[in-house]
Amino acid sequence: YGDEKEARIAAESSRNELSEELNRVKLEQKRLNDQIKMLQDTNKRLQEYNTSLQQYNCNLQADATKNAETIDKLQKEKNTMVETMNGLKDHSNSVKLQLEMAKSSQSEALKQKNNLLSEVEALRGELHQVRDDRDHKSAEINSLLSDLGVYKELTGKSSSELENVMIRCDALEETCSNQTEKIKTLQIQLASANEKLKRSNLTTMETMSEYESQKRMLEDLQLRLTEAEQKIVDGEKLRKKLHNTILELKGNIRVFCRVRPLLSNESGAVSYPNNGENIGRGVELMHNTQSYSFAFDKVFDHSASQEDVFTEISQLVQSALDGYKVCIFAYGQTGSGKTHTMMGNPEFNDQKGLIPRSLEQIFQTSQCLMSQGWKYKMQASMLEIYNETIRDLLATSRTSIQDGAASKYNIKHDANGNTQVSDLTIVDVRSINEVSSLLKRAAQSRSVGKTQMNEESSRSHCVFTLRIFGVNEVCNLLLTSSIHA
Questions:
Q1: Which residue has the higher pLDDT, 190 or 402?
Q2: Cα–Cα distance between 89 and 83 in angstroms, integer?
Q3: Measured distance CA(130)–CA(137) in Å, rounded
Q4: Annotated binding residue at 156?
Q5: Is 338 annotated as a binding residue?
Q6: Annotation-wise, does 268 bind a ligand?
Q7: Which domains does the chain have, with CATH numbers?
Q8: Residue 276, annotated ligand binder?
Q9: Is 306 annotated as contributing to ligand binding?
């Protein structure tokens, strides 16, 4: 009985302990269930937030597309206005030329008028002189006639003297008649000169009126052009803002993965998820019956072309022209295709790498932005790090490239966060052809060697730098950026 009692007491205590343990387990289960619910709610909210972000991103891309279309439309209107303005400028120049010709004609007419007026004054003086002479001659005739009468009455001179006096009188009358005809001719010439002067003044007034009308039209077009340029500037600012917002949503730092085809001596299998959230972003590797999964911002399979890879990073190249610092670099083991991705074969359009395509886009876009008042200056440099030694690939002589010591080139950082290498060759470039020749020259100076995966593999780290300096005198803007690849 005593043993049974002790066993019963031990069983009851064990049962109590188990009950307490069960209660604790239930409490722990309840707590874990609450945590699971909380995590599920959090996951649901995160999914909703992710959906809203994707929707917001789509809206921003749509707005960016609309703004791009608006900017294109405004650009077309601006080009039309510029063409119209150029035509009006040509017309204005022709009107100005006509006006100058009219002014010269007017000045000639004024000179002719002044000459005619002086001639008229001279003729009037001559007319007054002739009239005075006529009056004097008439007085002389009258005096002679009176003298003749007196002579006839008093002295009775001979008829010969009378005839001489009559001849003299006829000559004086003929002279007076000639002077009268000359006066009439001069009056006709004066009236013709006055008529020419009136016509010249009328033509000048019409030309001035047309010039003022063209001037007002030109001022109106210039005002409209200024408004259109301001709209384009505002649209460009909005485009930059939306562009940078989209890039920030995608991520200022993004990691892409490019898979090249497997070689004949390589084993393993590569696959890509075809469902779930990792479509286009994930890659799965099978090695020795073991599966490995990786996720990136973007995955390019072995069928992806150079154009496909560049399309994904082309927006970053646009950011360089907007004044931001951009860095694009490839990382991977020897023979993984870094040089092919970054440089490719510039001789063929479909095999060009990221660097040649980025430079082409930069120069093409900078040419388009010249119509908006932007002027760009670009400087290029290229170096490689070989055996922990910096080598200038754009040095003028091959000896200076091979004999370059690490102490000659020092990496420096200024107060603005810019990184520079001292004594590095910097070349001003103005076209894509100049940059292509620099890339060819640098490629010939690179250190290469044979590996098991590549007959001619790059044995160094290469860095190409393009510094961009932009100025817009219309908007009074200045930017400095760089792109490293």
A1: 190
A2: 10
A3: 10
A4: no
A5: yes
A6: no
A7: 257-302 (no CATH), 305-397+409-484 (3.40.850.10)
A8: no
A9: no
